[in-house]
Amino acid sequence: MSETQSMQEALVHALLSDDSNRDVCFDQKGLEAYRRGLFANARRALEVTFPTILQLIGFSRFEACTTSYLQASPPTISDWGLWGNNFPEHLAQQPALAELPYLTDCAKLDWYCHLAERCADQTLDPNSLTLLEEDPYSLTLVPGVGFTTLESDYPIVEIYRAHHEREDLRERQLAIAKDKLTRKVGETALIWRREWKAQVIALSPAEQYWMTLIVRQASLGNALDTIQASGYDFSFVDWLPKAIEHKWIMGIVQNTPKP
Amino acid sequence: MADPAQPFTGAIPKIGVGLRHSHYADALNSVADIDFLEVHAENFFAEGGAALAVLDEISQHYAISIHGTALSLGSYTGLCSQHLHKLQKLVQRFSPLLISDHACFARTLLNNQPVHVGDLLPIEFNERSLACLVRNIQQVQEILGRPMLIENLSAYIQLPGATLTETEFLVNACQQTDCQLLLDLNNLVVNAHNANIKNIVPYVIDWIEQIPSSIVGEFHLAGCTPVPAGEIMVDDHSQPVPDEVWQVYEHALRRFGPVPTLIEWDTHLPTWNSLLKEAHKARDRAKATLTVESSGTAETTI
């Protein structure tokens, strides 16, 4: 290994290590200046990505979690905005947070919302709706921007709303979330982006079943067969206008038959 | 770029400001009297979303300069292909006036895994490190199809193993790659403070004098939180440009000519109007300095 590489590895190692393991070959005051900057950058990045978690656990516990997460899973790429994919699992491993078992799922929801806001832009293709006259087994619905679902044993949508609603609505929303937590009500969240902002709603079991088929990109014919066989009361005709209005789907594509 | 054989003609440099999130609306509400806006590349690396849409709109009204903070040009392990690809897409989309990043490293291997700490860490000033910086700059310029600028750092530790001075190192890097130097004057002042230099302005001017006039393509001006002597000053871009930096700016203008100049302000952000006032101050200083220079009456040494 070249001396330059060794020096660079040693410096990064020194920045990420605990005090007792710190390399003594670097000036400690200077190292501390870099270290403060690095840990502050990491915390700020995760504050942007996990705003619900910051509110749920408060600044000092959040800061401690970001410090331990940076040491355990430092970024591998340059974009702080893409760092944090396993932060939810890191939270689950923190004994101090064990009394908040819903935290991991709330963090996953924050992560999906964050990703939805970074997804490539797409515009609705209204003309593609004329394809509905074609063979449904050759058609696939194009999911909206950042469209995904997240199933949880906890009322993650209500908890999310309690921390993102307008200030005057939060108390009421928090009461709903607490009530559902007490009654052990789980929720499945639908996440997508509309007007640049991530949107979150809770899905009924029938909607969850159907939306999951869309996420998996089943053909429209197969998806309709599957949901009919499931016994859920679901009407595609009623759902479609809502899906277009809310931008859950951006159009329809016809799959070319494989030769 | 200045031709040392010719006197300056009194041309005024392009003056820009760093654009940060909280000023997006102000910048769009009415088009400011400013020559360019500098954005941080990594803030626009998403595939889509609001930030890119805003920058699309901004670029309809202002020239854009793309300034990177995480290319890790001095990294011995090489550049991140994902980062390069994103930068290339951004450059193709916005055709920036200038593209720059720092002569530093942030990316290395730990236990054979890549780690990117997203900071501006110093590199050794020696031939090995220079070869690595040159290789990486050449790769970036090849991919972007145009020259870039590299910025001198404010460094809080000195790495052992230096065989070149900082100016020799930077000049060599620019000359071997045909890139230009983004001369951050505040970084020089910060380094002088941290080296416990008593007379900072003459010290920085001496540093500047070692740079050939042909390689400087941009100036950065900023101010940072003052600290007592003996404490490390961190280049936090939190204050107006201090008098020391204005003094060395005037000298730099006389030496390098009407080089594009940027006011950087990243923390404790002022109002948009205050930021613009700081930029207008830079324009007035440049005008006064270069007009006097062109009339041939300027003192060129301090």
Report on the structure:
- The complex is a heterodimer of chains A (259) and B (302).
- By secondary structure, chain A is mainly α.
- Chain A folds into two domains: 3-100, no CATH class; 117-254, Outer Surface Protein A, domain 3, CATH 3.90.930.
- Helix content of chain A is 53%, strand content 12%.
- In chain A, the strands form two sheets. Chain A has a three-stranded antiparallel beta sheet. A two-stranded antiparallel ribbon of chain A has the order 1-5.
- The longest helix of chain A is centred in the first third of the chain and has 22 residues, at 28-49.
- The mean pLDDT of chain A is 94.
- Chain B has one domain (15-283): Divalent-metal-dependent TIM barrel enzymes (TIM Barrel).
- Chain B is built from nine helices and ten strands.
- Chain B has helices at 24-29, 50-61, 81-94, 127-144, 166-177, 185-194, 200-209, 243-256, 272-294, and strands at residues 15-18, 36-40, 63-67, 98-102, 105-110, 113-121, 149-151, 180-184, 216-221, 261-263.
- In chain B, the strands form two sheets. In chain B, strands 1-2-3-4-7-8-9-10 form an eight-stranded parallel β-barrel, surrounded by five helices. A two-stranded antiparallel sheet of chain B has the order 5-6.
- Chain B is globular, with a radius of gyration of 19 Å.
- Classes of the chains: A mainly alpha (259), B alpha/beta (302).
- The interface between A and B is large, with 41 and 48 residues.
